[in-house]
Amino acid sequence: MALSVLSRKEKERVIRRLLIQAPPGEFVNAFDDLCLLIRDEKLMHHQGECAGHQHCQKYSVPLSIDGNAVLLSHHNVIGDYRFFDYQSKLSFKFDLLQNQLKDIQSHGIIRNETEYLRTVVLCALKLYVNDHYPTGNCNVLRKTIKSKEFLIACIEDHNYETGDCWNGLWKSKWIFQVNPFLTQVTGRIFVQAHYFRCVNLHVEISKDLKESLEVVNQAQLALSFARLVEEQENKFQAAVLEELQELSNEALRRILRRDLPVTRTLIDWQRILSDLNLVMYPKLGYVIYSRSVLCNWII
Fold it and tell me: SUPFAM superfamilies under this entry (predicted)?
């Protein structure tokens, strides 16, 4: 159906759905392409703002405020398209299309034992991230749910190489309740990559985890938590790399094989597979030491 025969609400729904589907690092590109089709600046700006807010939460878009990394997620949303940063104690709106902070305001926090624990956990997590991610970012948030306090640790690293026709993102989230003796850590590791040279290849991999940690004191809990994250993420990476190495050329050929297009143009599958191998396998070695990504190995 042509866009011209759609109602305004239907257009809004289609635009928002298409923008939300944009892979990590490609939101602005998708927005610019849609602008050429829709030709309605006011409509696109409004939908771009709404979808951009959701995109930031979905992919933990990183910012820098006063030299500190801030990861946007639904955990630090405070309503009216605003985010909150515990480090700078500021709330703000973020315009993804302009890559700009807007309407910055001070926002107080309650200084208690949980806040001190959050700071200690953040320091331990930063040491881990700096050691394993060349350009990684991390953040630790507080949240109170039914009078129970939780800490939420987020990690993000990406490599967006649009000029080389690929983008990749690694992110993880870890949540645990502030308990006196034993706490359960719930985690989720997520990887997404998009390769669009010769083929349009999307890959998404994720894993959910649950582990328990003993609580002795704040310093012990922070160090134990950082070791837990390191152990689980290393296991996840090793498993993914093992699966990737087992993916033979024959398997790739079965995935990519399709009938000749209507143009009757011959597709050189051998060349495509060769190109994929050139991108994939030479990068496997250093990714074991540098998790800058499955952004680098997956494609």
Answer: Subunits of heterodimeric actin filament capping protein Capz (SSF90096)
* CA distance linking residue 214 with residue 182, whole number of Å: 5
Residue 198, domain CATH: 3.90.1150.210
SS3 of residue 51 by DSSP: helix
Q: How many other CB atoms sit within 10 Å of the CB of residue 202?
A: 11
pLDDT for 96-107, tens place per residue? Answer: 999 999 999 987
d(Cα 102, Cα 105) in Å, to the nearest integer? 9
Domain of 234 in residue numbering reads as 113-255
Stated pTM of the model? 0.79
Residue appearing with tokens 């540098």:
290
What count of residues does the chain have? Answer: 299
Question: What is the average pLDDT value for the chain, to the nearest integer?
Answer: 82
Residue 228 is encoded by which pair of tokens?
A: 């837990």
H runs (alpha helix) in 156-264: 218-246, 249-256
Beta bridge partners of 187: 174, 209
**Cα torsion through 31, 34, 38, 39, rounded to 10:** 60
- Can you tell me the distance from the alpha carbon of 299 to that of 286, in angstroms, rounded to the nearest whole number? 14
Domain end among 106, 140, 157:
106
Reported as a single tens digit per residue, the pLDDT across 215-257 is 989 999 999 999 999 999 999 999 988 877 776 555 666 665 5
* Whole-angstrom distance, CA of residue 121 vs CA of residue 153: 8
Q: Which residues are CB-neighbours of 280 under 8 A, at least 6 positions away?
A: 244, 297, 298, 299
The answer to whether residue 297 scores a pLDDT higher than 60 is no
Alpha carbon distances (Å) from 134 to 63, 126, 129, 239, 299: 16, 12, 8, 21, 19
Q: Which of 243, 241, 268 is nearest to 256 (CA)?
A: 268
Q: Is residue 205 part of a domain?
A: yes
